[in-house]
Amino acid sequence: MKHKMEIDGVEVAFSEGETILEVAQCHQTEIPTLCYDPRLEPFGGCRLCIVELEGARNPVASCTTEATPGMVVRTATDTIEAYRKTLLEMVISENREVDVSPLRGYASGELTDLRDRYGLNDTRITGATSGISKTDENPFILRDYELCISCYRCVRVCAEQEGDHAINVMNRGFHTQITTEFDGLLKDSACTFCGQCIQTCPTGALGDKKALRHAASELQIPSTEPDIEKTRTICPYCGVGCSVDILTKNEKIVGIHPAMDGPANEGALCVKGQFAYDFVQHSDRLTTPLVRGDDGELHEATWEAALDRAAEGYRKVHAEHGRHSIYGIASGRAPSEAAYLMQKFIRAGFGTNYIDNCSRA
Amino acid sequence: MSNPLVDMQKPDVIFCIGTNMTECHPVAATGLKKAVARGAKLIVADPRRIGLAEMSDLYLPLRVGSDTALLLGMAHVIAREGLIDETFVKDRTTGFDDFFEHISQWTPEWAESITEVPAKDIETAALWYGTANRGAIYYTLGITEHICGVENVQSLCNLALMTGNIGREGTGINPMRGQNNIQGAGDSGALPNNYPGFQAVTDPEYQAKFEAAYGKAVDLEKGITKVTALELCGDSIHAMLIDGENTLLSDPDREHCEHALRALEHLVVIDIFLTETAELADVVLPATAWGETDGICTNTERRVQRLRAAVPPPGDAKPDWWIISQIAQRLGFKGFDYNTPEPIFNELCELSPIYAGLDWERVDKGATDIFNNQWPVPHKAHPGTPRLHEETFVNGRGIFSNVHYRDPAETISDDFPVWLTTGRRLQSYHTRTQTGRSEGIEYLLSEESLEVNPTDIEEWNLTDGEWCKMSSARGSITIKVKSTNRSPRGTVFASFSFADVPVNLLTGSGYDPITHTAELKVCPVRLEPL
After folding, report:
1. Domain limit, last residue, from A27, A43, A76
2. How many domains does chain B contain in total?
3. Which chain A positions have a beta carbon within 8 Å of B240's beta carbon?
């Protein structure tokens, strides 16, 4: 059942249960947010999404206020924009820095983008910075809490999306600190290093340590280098089929982002999909065909020589032992074209069904 | 899976058996966690007190290899308590009367005597699942890697059929596939009994279809499985082509496997690393890896998705499809002159009714509001099929199976008094050819260890953190002992991931006679301190 309401003078339709923010987003009206992640329960912490609601004395948070029929909402009046600007200035003043590497995480540029949108390059508010960064030896998750703005997206994604409840909030107000049980290392908590906290953090307070490390040591990418290419594909591990973006720079894989719109994962990944990607460009990779020589050892060979030898071996065995002496095992890891051609090789080539894949072990 | 992944958030009662989902399919497990947080009841049957067991409402710690007994006991209670979905049974199934009579003898007390799970807990599980509006079953290799894997799966089907928990949202029988494209490999016909699209090789219609398509008459009978082929190496099998599988480490009974591969006159291995298996080959051909290869894969919910290359391959590495085509062309085989993967996938679609509505271009566009690309996709306008069996079963009616419990191939004895069960861990993948080469993973998991109950450690004179010798009827390995309550008394656990702890030297006691899947989940062993 569709209802009607008005946003910025335009009549729009909405369904019951939708928040003002969701209705606005559906109708291409952009409202700034920091604590909002569409996958999580509305939180209403950052107050940046406040809007004017006709008949209400004070502005309301659009992320936690459900739309009702006949509602009249103004999203960007001068007053609202002034409030937002002040709120942002206060948030920024508590942080050590705002410009962070896009490699820190999927959403790590949100605060930077808002600062630029509101032109807040000169600091009007000065004072103490909040948050104490945590030294954590783990190789994957940077805990740079001096950039934390207490939006709790990490805590909420860990609880609501991942279901692990590994991190929580300690202290109140200015002294708020994201922490684990007993304020220890992530390794000693319920954390599985799935990386969801990194990817939802809007400031880079939680960052992809591995990507930053690789970028710094091997590629000398400046920390704010924006020029990272993304390629959408599917994770190479289990059968769930999570959608990911491979991040590349100069033909090197520098990191992985979960695809927030991945049909199987909706932004989630596990430790393998998130961090175990560098086998691809590992120095152990086979780069040239190998053929066993008369000395019993494998030797490098050209493709021509190796393919001739491969074919010759089958021809010989076929001639000596017949077509039922040759067997094919297809991969459950390679694309379907490989498996299809393996069975075609055996069926169309030798006329047998002597083909299987690796699913029986 | 009969149902889509998104359905995992929707059941009222979830029955997980033989799946360590939080470690092996962690992202899928997030759906279950959401269902539990919403109030769904979770029943977990597993010999080990795994992560899922910790979050369950009812944990059934069954003895390894006793799944059929547990499931027969549950079926008995569901029937006894009158929780049968009469309409569903009448309209959609066949063989219920015989089955009803069959299960009357398998009481929960009998099941307790086999499984060591208290009869009252078996009753509770049956009552919960039997009264659920939406009851969903999830399983993995803990069900199939047994000599009775087929009976285990049939037992789960019995439960779903008698309660009508199939063909609806939030229900179903849902096996989770373990490798990124293991579903696609089967879909593509890399099976001894099926042409692409699961068209039986014994069906004259499909025989004619593929003879016409390939211009070659193919055997009218099924081929042999990989397990049989390995047994026949040097006898009647003399050449193999292995693509991207570290057979030596992943398969049971490593010594037998190595002996088999060495007995071949000709072995060609296509892989991205010089694996233990590739080291035995006559020719090793370097393939492009994930992230370097354009192609298509299919996930556990039958969703057909696009793989894209992001970086160039190292050196002379080539895509698998190119390599296979080149060998085929050199042998004079017709129909292998491909220059890109696109026509290969389109050929697969043309020959497979379940892929008939798909093509490279459509999969490349990804899931949309209209097209979900979950097979079967019978024609171009079809959106795909998230949920199977909604109106009818493919073969007509759901068939009840009068299964019997069987002991594992080997049971514990004076010589081998401890149950070993094997599996996987969150931080490593299969034989670690990939995760073992990913920096940082070793911080979380640096070595393999044998999980032993603390009381057993004391009783068997072992020491936590020290090495022990573990032997089965097939061999011995040394492995570090780790004290943990995850292992019940009398059962130990290890993964097969680490090459220096080749657990599959010990396994391989038996195989399911139909699927030839090895009983990797049960292996009696003896432990001795070193």
Report:
1. A76
2. 3
3. 326-329
Domain membership of residue A26 (yes or no) is yes
Distance from CA of A305 to the nearest CA of B (A): 10
Examine residue B508 and state whether it is found in any structural domain, yes or no: yes
Distance CA B111, CA B228 (A): 33
Q: Considering only the C-alpha atoms of chain B, give the largest distance between any 2 of them, rounded to a whole number of Å.
A: 67
DSSP state of A66: B
Domain span at residue B197 reads 179-221+287-313+334-379
Among positive and negative, which fits the CA dihedral B337, B340, B344, B350? negative
B242 contact residues in A (CB cutoff 8 A): 328-329
Inter-helix orientation angle B149-163/B96-103, to 10°: 110
Q: Is the pLDDT of residue A216 over 80?
A: no
- Find the CB nearest A237 among B180, B187, B222: B180
User: How open is the CA angle A253-A256-A262, to the nearest 5 degrees?
Assistant: 135
ipTM metric: 0.95
Same domain, A121 and A265: yes
Kindly report the CATH number assigned to the domain that includes residue B447. Answer: 2.40.40.20
User: What length is written for chain B?
Assistant: 530
Statement to judge: residues B13 and B150 lie in one domain:
yes
pLDDT tens readout for residues B248-285: 887 778 888 999 999 999 999 999 999 999 999 999 99
Residue B275 lies in a domain: no
CB A111 within 8 A of CB A91: yes
Is the pLDDT confidence value at A182 over 80? yes
B308, A231: Cβ pair inside 8 Å?
yes
Nearest-by-Cβ selection for A335 from B25, B238, B295? B295
Domain boundary among A225, A251, A275: A275
| pLDDT band at residue A121 under the 50/70/90 scheme | confident
Minimal-distance CA residue of chain B relative to A311 = B327
On whether residue A60 sits in a domain, the answer given is: yes
Upper half-sphere CA count for residue B420 (Cβ side, 13 Å): 30
Question: For position A3, what pLDDT does the model report?
Answer: 94
pLDDT beyond 70 at A207:
yes
Are B89 and B207 within one domain?
A: no
Is there a single domain that holds both residue B142 and residue B37?
yes
Q: What is the pTM of this model?
A: 0.95
Of the candidates A271, A330, A337, the beta carbon closest to that of B344 is on A337
Please check whether residues B10 and B130 belong to one and the same domain. yes
My answer on whether A254 and A296 are in the same domain is: no
Range of the domain at A170: 88-275
Residues paired with residue B16 on neighbouring β-strands, in sequence order: B44, B138
- Residue written as token pair 């299960």: B103
Where is pLDDT greater, at A128 or B94? B94
| Best to test chain A binding among B220, B237, B243 (most A CBs inside 10 Å) | B243
Please name which of A75, A71, A64 lies closest in space to residue A29, comparing C-alpha atoms: A75
CATH number of the domain where residue B347 is located: 3.40.50.740
- Domain annotation covers residue A81: no
Report the chain B residue with the minimal C-alpha distance to residue A347. Answer: B218
- Chain B residues whose CB is inside 8 A of the A246 CB are 291, 308, 310-311
Computed on alpha carbons and rounded to an integer, the radius of gyration of chain A in Å comes to 27
Tens-place pLDDT, residues A140-155:
999 999 999 999 999 9
